[in-house]
Amino acid sequence: MAGVSLRHLHKSYGKNGPLVVKDVNLDIEDGEFMVFVGPSGCGKSTTLRMVAGLERVSQGEIYIGDELVNNVPPKKRDIAMVFQNYALYPNMSVFENMAFGLRLRKTEKHLIDTSVKQNARTLEIEHLLERKPRQLSGGQRQRVALGRAIVRHPKVFLMDEPLSNLDARLRVQMRTEIVELHRRLETTMIYVTHDQTEAMTMGTRICIMKDGVIQQVGAPEDVYMRPANMFVANFIGSPPINFIEGRLLPGKDGGLVFDTARFRLPISPEKSKTLLAQGYLEKTVVLGIRAEYVHREEDVPGLAPPTDAPIRGDVHFSELVGADRFIHVKVGDDKLVMRAAAYDRMPDGTKVTLALNPKFMLFFNRDTQQVIA
Ligand SMILES: Nc1ncnc2c1ncn2[C@@H]1O[C@H](COP(=O)(O)OP(=O)(O)OP(=O)(O)O)[C@@H](O)[C@H]1O
Ligand SMILES: [Mg+2]
């Protein structure tokens, strides 16, 4: 087992191609489950493929354990990779598919036998060993692909959207299985997905990328509660965070007030202090607040400090999402989404006065889009 370190990693395809991975620096610890997440084309697969040795590094270094592997061929890197289209060999049985990598490495037959059977048991596909891939369901095939990777006990697992061919229910199930597998094997895992829910539920840490650049690396709750910038705040979480532009004006007791054309909100003393210290008085900033910290005022008396201009709006529409209801409220030209309980029906057109929990207000610099902390 080993950690993986990326140092000033850059990649461009072709001689004069644009940089699709830009100065990526990351230390993945031994045994960690690191998820790369970000929108399509942000460079996740390219980064993973460089770790695997399937793409040349344009600039920078990759270490697996203490070894610089830039010039080590894929076969010698002791990694196992599971792809989106896991490409099982159609004419081989499940057993042969799983044994293939070990045979290539000239492992002794009885060891192959033991390893395949043991891992097949772990993945609950022991009863399928004689079948051909076409005789399996999507989830079973996926498990065979995982099995093929884990029989070798590599130093590092690399997975690139391994669940994207599965239906929603099976994805959720396989997610849990991969997390459990990781707990059991304690092998370093790098997992790529564009699905923020998958990233949040699976990773011990997640690395959010955009346009080839790392935006933030942290534990799921870190990046959710303390996003580094507006991109991360918006990309992580469902429904997306609410953003509203407003100006910071002097308020009572030396604090600040967030002022828009429609409403004014007193800001907590600590946050006011930070904003003042960084010169944001009279400046326009972006307020970010997650839907679970938006309430009907009447439901949370005393939560938000009193104001002469509260947030008054109309329910625009609501969506039922499992146990939650996302209620979209129009406040002038702004829109705020509130997370309520499923049973909390608010018909369209209902007039509501909203209260935002001051503790969870985030403020962003409008120009740089970075959080003000
Ligand atoms: N072989 C290639 N030749 C040229 N450009 C490429 C090649 N592979 C990828 N790219 C480009 O590099 C950028 C990053 O691609 P990459 O596949 O790493 O994105 P990704 O984050 O994995 O996206 P997705 O979520 O869609 O899989 C994209 O702009 C893509 O078009
Ligand atoms: Mg990809």
Descriptive account of the structure:
This protein is an alpha+beta fold and 373 residues long. It folds into 2 domains: 226 residues, P-loop containing nucleotide triphosphate hydrolases (Rossmann fold); 124 residues, Beta Barrel (OB fold (Dihydrolipoamide Acetyltransferase, E2P)), CATH 2.40.50. It contains 9 helices and 20 strands. The strands form 4 sheets. It has a 6-stranded mixed beta sheet, sandwiched between helices. A hairpin with a 6-residue loop joins strand 1 and strand 2. Helix 2 packs parallel to helix 4. It starts with a strand and ends in an 8-residue tail after the last strand. The protein binds adenosine-5'-triphosphate and magnesium ion. The site of magnesium ion has 3 residues, from helix 1. The site of adenosine-5'-triphosphate has 11 residues, from helix 1. One of its GO terms (biological process) is carbohydrate transport. Keywords: ATP-binding, Nucleotide-binding, Transport. GO terms for molecular function: ABC-type transporter activity; ATP binding; ATP hydrolysis activity.
Nutshell version of this structure?
The chain has 373 residues and is α+β, with helices and mostly antiparallel strands.
Rg, Å, rounded: 25 Å
Q: Which superfamily, in CATH terms, is the homologous superfamily of the largest domain?
A: P-loop containing nucleotide triphosphate hydrolases
Terminal CA distance reads 37 Å
Q: Report the CATH topology name of the largest domain.
A: Rossmann fold
Ligand inventory reads:
adenosine-5'-triphosphate, magnesium ion
Structural class by helix and strand composition:
alpha+beta
> What is the element string, with H for helices and E for strands?
EEEHEEEHHHEHEHEEHHEEEHEEEEEEE
**What do the pLDDT scores average to?**
94
Which class of the largest domain in CATH terms?
Alpha Beta
Please name the CATH architecture of the largest domain.
3-Layer(aba) Sandwich
Beta-strand segment tally: 20
Bin the helical content: 10-25%
Q: Which percent range describes the beta-strand content?
A: 25-35%
Number of helices: 9
